[in-house]
Amino acid sequence: MATIDLGKIKLVWRGTYNNSTAYVVDDLVAFTDTGVLSTYICVANSTGNNPSSGGTAHASWNYVSQGQAAETNASIRTKVEAATDSNVFTDADHTKLNGIETSATADQTGSEILALINSSTIATSGIITDGKGNVRSIPSNAQGGAYVGVAADAGKAIYISTGGVTLNNSVFSAGDAVSIINNSGSAQTITQGSGVTLYNTGDATTGNRTLAGRGMATVWFAAADVAYISGSGLS
């Protein structure tokens, strides 16, 4: 019986695949398929059969080591950005950062923002509003009975149809202004509340005032307990 030296049985490396070479079982070759370099072993005698096509091995060949397509910059970036712990800027982040002025600093404080507003001219084609609404209009507080003014009336017009209006002490603050419009044809009383000094700018007298039918008056507060009133139809 013949003796076989197992130490001499080995695969045969044939180098880069050649389409005209006749390959036999256990031949090893290197072949690039769609840009990916892999190694293959011949499993059936083969001539003119590429080891693989489009990533699928030919029946005459098996993969020994299948290569991987080289990563592009775009594919690497996509994977890095998708990693939750990568701590990198995404394209969207870069877009935002590119929109920041080169002189921008840390978040501005309220006082810094106020200083910028005070030193600038505000120009807009839209509507500027505050807590009371459009700053170019005077909001109306319509009332159908005797009414006592509240702090929220500052900057508004009390549109009263009957019962008159009372202005009490420590309701309004210095600088507040309130308009009172008589929405009726009859006179109504504007009452100077307890502790309040209400000056009539027409004659410097103090006390309650009468607002004639369809009359209009404005009250300006110098302090929480001192106010000045002036208007049309006021006596």
Radius of gyration, Cα only, in angstroms? 45 Å
Largest sheet: 9 strands, mixed
Overall geometry: rod-shaped
Q: What CATH architecture of the domain at 136-234 do you see?
A: Sandwich
From the 3D structure, determine the CATH topology of the domain at 136-234.
Jelly Rolls
Helix-strand category: mainly beta
Q: Would you give an account of this structure?
A:
The strands form five sheets. Strands 11, 12, 13, 14, 15, 16, 17, 18 and 19 form a nine-stranded mixed β-sheet that branches. A four-stranded mixed β-sheet has the order 1-3-4-8, with no helix packed on it. The longest helix has 10 residues, at 73-82. By secondary structure, the chain is mainly beta. Among the domains are: 9-65, no CATH class; 136-234, Jelly Rolls, CATH 2.60.120. 11% of the residues lie in helices and 37% in strands. It is built from three helices and 19 strands. Strand 18 and strand 19 (226-234) form a beta hairpin. The chain has helices spanning 73-82, 91-98, 110-118, and strands at residues 12-16, 22-23, 27-33, 36-42, 46-47, 52-53, 56-57, 61-65, 129-130, 133-134, 140-143, 147-148, 157-160, 165-167, 177-182, 188-192, 197-200, 209-223, 226-234. It is rod-shaped, with a radius of gyration of 45 Å.
